[in-house]
Structure formats: C-alpha cells, structure tokens
Write a structure and sequence with these properties.
By secondary structure, the protein is α+β, with helices and mostly antiparallel strands. The protein has three helices and five strands, in the order αβββαββα. A hairpin with a 3-residue loop joins strand 1 and strand 2. The longest helix has 22 residues. The site of adenosine monophosphate has 11 residues, from loops.
Length: 138
C-alpha cells in the first residue's frame, strides 16, 4: 500500500524507532504514547483488520506482542500491560494497517480507560445476540 504510513515505516521511507523485526513482523515505538513506552506491533504485509489478516500471520504478530509485553515488564518495570487493537473507523482505528498496541502500565500512570459497562435488558437479549454470533462462525 503505497500511501500507508505503516507500510512506509516497513519500507524505511519514513523513520521509526524500531525495537524488533523479522521477515514477517515489525515492532516500533508509538509516536503518540498513551503511556510512555507504548509499542506498536504490525505484520509487514498490509492488511487492514483482524478479519482480513491470516491466522498464521496473527500468530507471528502475537508472539512478538508477548515478547514486547515481557520486555516492558522486565526493562521498564511495568506493573501491568494493556493490549489494544482496533478494527475499522467505528472502533477508532486511525491507521488502516493492522496493529497491536502494547501499553506498559504503572500503578500511578494516571491513565484511565473510558470504559462504561452497559447492561442487557433481559436474558433473552444476550442469548439472541450470542445465537447470531454463533450462527455466523466460519
Ligand atoms: P489507531 O488509533 O489504533 O489506528 O492507532 C494508531 C497509532 O499509530 C496511534 O497510537 C498513533 O500515535 C500511532 N502512529 C501514527 N503515526 C505514527 C508514526 N509515524 N510512528 C509511530 N506511531 C505512529
Ligand atoms: Zn500498510
């Protein structure tokens, strides 16, 4: 993808602070960290969403996500790690090249997810939604 910013980072035509790369996967520092030390992990081949990315590729990416999380704990002393991944503009995806955020968390880092739990009207509502998801499994 010639106009994809992450493909340009893979190609080396724009700079990034790279942490790790192999034939399939690249990890680099997020330029706008939620918490300092925030890392992005991407497949080198351009796909946009998790649903468009082959499971074999995702397995390689997740292995690097795990290594980054362990390194943030061992190297930065992170008390916890958030893994975040958005698919589509409706989900807040800004860069349309699949990426996993690996975010080191510290007891007093001041970050709070704006995560407000909703509730189901009754048990039939959750069951109906579960049935629709199960019926669509491929
Ligand atoms: P998302 O909202 O999940 O699409 O996240 C995109 C992420 O890419 C944001 O956290 C940005 O800070 C990050 N980002 C955008 N451009 C760059 C860049 N050139 N180098 C590093 N990180 C970037
Ligand atoms: Zn791309």
């Amino acid at each position: 993808m010639s106009n994809c910013i992450f493909c340009k980072i893979v190609a080396g035509t724009i700079p990034a602070t790279k942490l790790y790369e192999d034939d399939d996967v690249l990890a680099f520092m997020d330029i706008g960290p939620i918490v300092k030390g925030h890392v992005l992990v991407i497949p080198k081949t351009h796909t946009e969403t998790i649903g468009q990315t082959p499971p074999e590729t995702l397995a390689k990416v997740i292995a690097v996500v795990r290594r980054m999380a362990r390194a943030q704990q061992a190297g930065l002393g992170a008390d916890g790690i958030n893994i975040h991944q958005s698919n589509g503009a409706a989900a807040g995806q800004v860069v349309p090249h699949i990426h996993f955020h690996v975010i080191p968390r510290f007891k007093h880092d001041g970050h709070h997810w704006n995560w407000t739990a909703q509730s189901y009207a009754d048990p039939s509502e959750v069951a109906a939604l579960a049935d629709r998801i199960k019926a669509a499994l491929d």
